[in-house]
Amino acid sequence: MKSNSLRIFFQKYWKALFLLFFVSALAYLPNITKFTLYKDDWYYIVDGFFGGPKIFREMFYIDRPLRGFLWEYLFTFLKTDPLPYQILAYVWRLISGMLYFWLLNLVWPKHEKTNLWISMLFLLYPGYLWWVSGVEYQPYILTQLLQVFSFVTMLLFLKANSLFKKLFFLGCSAVAGWIGLMFVDYTIGMELFRIVIVFLFVSHELPVATIAAKIKKTVLSWLPFIIIPAVFMIWRTFFFNNARSETDISLQMGQLFAAPIQVGFLWLQSLIKSFFNINLIGWIKPFADNFFTLKLVEFLIAAILVFLTIFVVKKMVTKSYLSDPDETGSAPNSRQWEREALISGVIGVIGGIIPIVLMNCEVTIVSYSHYLLNPLMAAAPILFVIINWVRSQPLRHGILLSVIGFLVVSNYSYSVSIVKEETTIAKFWQQVYIRAPRMVPDTTFLVNLPNGYAVDNWDAIWAPVNYLYAQPDNIDVSEGAVHYPYAGLKPEIETSKNILMNSELGIGYRTHLFYTRYDHLVVISQPTLSSCVHIIDSRWPRLSLFDSDQVLMFASQSDISNIISPRAYVNYDEKIFGKLDEENWCAIYQKAELALQLEQWDQIAGFKSEAETKGYKPGDEIEWMPFLQGAIYFSDTDQIKVIMSQITQPFVASQACTTYEAMQKGGYYSSQTSMDENKDLVCPVEDMVIE
Fold it and tell me: What are the boundaries of each domain within the chain?
């Protein structure tokens, strides 16, 4: 660049920057208004709602205190609406991509077109799966931006001639670097990539110098920036008391000293696995996991996105406003660039991984993809180098266009899957809201979400029920935590053991605490996506053919006396749970179950008539039960016959009989004579075969 000013940068590269915006918008924005809260997003929003913005200081004082101040300001202005967080997260990533393009142009100024391709790869990388979690991962995305900005201003410092400019750029680089490390400490490994960038810059400034001279100049040029990791480590080591073992490097290193060979080998394994997860699995796994689940309309949208991406990128990249003298891929300078990009990329990725490995963790795409956000700066050029080995320019351009389209569709397909999950969970709690007017404080919930959505998703269990039913005035916020009246259990084997032992526990994490009460247990299950939510009544459990073993085991302990009426307070937030939908079978089913609990028997038949009029039918045969009970209560033989004819599953038919027996035992009938007359309809006696 002839000028290092931001204004000149935008003037010269506005078309390239627009292209970065365009392709990223196609990848990330089609479903942005449909996102709500994903996994850990729940506890951020709910803790902030009940504890207020200052609760975030308590949340992070144990390991990364600056995050608390960031979150205090974010929550003060953005509140509980997920959409602004999603928009802000996208803006951070877009700015990161633009700054990354600037960084590449400072390092390789003669390869502007190549730099644009790499920037698109960087911005569209699909392996960072937490981009859909717009709330929790604000500090991580912002750290990526800050680190790229720190590298850019470092190079501007090296290019500057005046003392004032050098001091200004040094200050910007240092402050951005410190803030980034305060947000996400393990990104300190990318300081190795900083040295690599300085070496590349120096090598281009001194092309004929010896390696020794280049290394010496690199060290001298980098030396002012040693204050970034040095000051951070001094603060972290001598002035900050880390109370979280997962982020305490001294505790992690203690394992190495205890068993150096074994731990060293495990670290090497984690390093290799992480490297290939970033550079191989992350590029392809999101597509493989999500594209083939698209429905027809979604597939057509994906096809349109691919067409728009390839059409616009082809039109804009082939224009001559960007220089790339070695675009043929055959010149010696091109091969020199490839060596630089490949070697520096490998070193940078390894540097970014090392602190993660030292924490006895590794980069995985599904659960720990946030670890790769910063190493991605070094990983993006590696893929381009591999593609650039194809020396045929038309073929290479075709591959690059296909890859960019592939990445756009990968991100879109993943967003579709997440919207389905979030919508399912939102509708789950919509049904709970319809079914349960109020909840008794100290109730503990054992929840089974459909389609495996409860796996690693505990916060989508305890947080929504407290957000819906807990009254803020009655919440105890003390000792740096919110003490919630409703507890949610993790759907795991340890939970089953605790219930069987009646081992009531205080459960908490960071700033949320609650106490489990198994004598106040309510079991809630949605066995499949086509099933309704079943709030289990131990008198006559609604056990689906598809329920989990845990639900079957503890259905007999589910006490619906913890659900009370009438509704006195509820915080139904459409921004989180969506617009309440009562025009469906499940809404009618929930109303019928509530009427059954309140013994409003005359209303049940009316709900069945409403469902028939609107053409609604159950997706799970067990959902005929409240209507069968209404017919049994009033001795409506015709309705009993109709409903029993709809039940084809022996497992459900047996429950119809046990429900009948429970009603008879509990006195839930209008006439004993009619109960006796209808028994054979509900509990038919099979003919016995005697040999």
Answer: 6-417, 438-564, 586-691
* Residue 251 DSSP label: H
Q: What is the pLDDT of residue 320?
A: 61
Q: What angle do CA 5, 6, 10 make, to 5 degrees?
A: 120
CA dist., res. 66 & res. 183, Å (int)? 6
Instruction: Give the three-state DSSP class for 183.
Output: helix
Indicate the DSSP class of residue 237. I
CB of 169 closer than 8 Å to CB of 160: yes
- Cα–Cα distance between 381 and 342 in angstroms, integer? 7
Question: What value, to the nearest 5°, has the Cα angle with vertex 588 and ends 586 and 591?
Answer: 110
pLDDT mean for each 10 residues of the chain (691 residues): 66 92 98 96 97 95 93 97 98 98 95 96 97 96 98 96 94 98 96 97 93 95 97 90 66 72 90 97 97 97 98 86 59 79 97 94 93 96 95 92 98 98 97 95 95 89 96 92 94 90 85 92 96 96 94 95 90 96 97 96 95 95 96 94 95 95 91 87 65 39
| Strand ranges, E, within 490-584 | 506-509, 512-515, 521-525, 534-535, 563-564
Supply 409's token pair: 């569709």
- Yes or no: say if 278 and 271 are a contact pair by the CB < 8 Å rule: no
CA distance linking residue 301 with residue 415, whole number of Å: 13
Q: Report the amino acid identity of residue 415.
A: S
What is the C-alpha to C-alpha distance for residues 66 and 59, in angstroms, rounded to an integer?
11
CA-CA distance, 59 to 47, in Å (whole number)?
Answer: 9
Looking up tokens 């790869």, which residue turns up? 121
Cα–Cα distances (Å) from 20 to 88, 92, 156, 252, in that order, read 17, 13, 22, 40
pLDDT at 3: 46
Give me the helices (H) in 318-359, please.
332-358
CB 656 within 8 A of CB 628: yes
- b/e map of 219-230 (b: 16 or more CB within 10 Å)? eebbeebeebbe
| CB environment 262-271: b (16+ within 10 A), e (fewer) | ebeebbeebb
> Which amino acid is located at 131 in the chain?
W
Of the candidates 191, 215, 200, 206, which has an alpha carbon nearest to the alpha carbon of residue 344?
200
